[in-house]
Amino acid sequence: MSWFSSWFDSPFYHVLYKNRNDIEAHFFIDNLISYLNPIQNSLFLDLACGKGRHSIYLNSKGINTDGCDLSPKSITFAKKSENKSLHFFEHDMRENLDKNNYNYILNLFTSFGYFEDSNDNLKMLNSVFEGLESNGIFVLDFFNSYHVVKNLVSYETKNIDNIDFKISKKIVDNFICKNINFDFDNISYQFTEKVEALTINDFEVMFKKTGFKIIDTFGSYSLENYDSEHSNRLIIIAQKSY
């Protein structure tokens, strides 16, 4: 089983990241919607949606939204918020989508670069391309790998819900690897996160191969210009070229 299949479906994943800032997520979505200015009745897909925090907020703004994720437990949780214009389903983002009429597909909060085989990255981008309508827009929100590598914290401990998560990070074969160790109910657990340190040049090559045209890049959730030295994020806005 891949690291992301086991870790993302673990209850401990949601404990470790329980303090993710919804205010920041809403701030980003607000700025993104203002920038995209979608026409009425546009259809959005939140690809790798987790428990649906971005999807639910998008839908609260009157936007028709689908959300999908590989984790069955996350989708089961997200489905509690479904309504006539908000739907969730399980999906491996490397596989083609059942729909091909999305106006916008979003891949947020570094939900890319997990795969050992670089061809899987292209499979994912191809599935996004095929899932979009003609001239549809793809938004990819990734960390700025230059900044992450430069400021890597090799070890830290986080105490959350009385669990001491011992986290170590290192670079291995151009992957940023995070090892997570902790004890719970006298059982020791170990999980791994691995994300490829992809640069804007890497994305430019992959997007060109899959038929996307990059139309904008931003470096923060306030949509400031991207700067490889100082930006925390790399946000790419791309368009299906036909």
Describe the structure.
By secondary structure, the chain is an alpha/beta fold. The chain folds into two domains: 3-145 and 199-240, Rossmann fold; 148-194. It is 30% helix and 35% strand. It has a seven-stranded mixed sheet, sandwiched between helices. The protein has a four-stranded antiparallel sheet with strand order 6-7-8-9. Strand 4 (102-107), helix 6 and strand 5 (132-143) form a beta-alpha-beta unit. Helix 3 packs across helix 4. The longest helix has 15 residues, at 22-36. It is globular. The chain starts with a helix and ends with a strand. The mean pLDDT is 95.
Brief write-up:
By secondary structure, the protein is α/β, with parallel strands linked by helices. The chain is about 30% helix and about 35% strand. It has a seven-stranded mixed sheet with strand order 3-2-1-4-5-11-10, with helices on both faces. A four-stranded antiparallel sheet has the order 6-7-8-9.
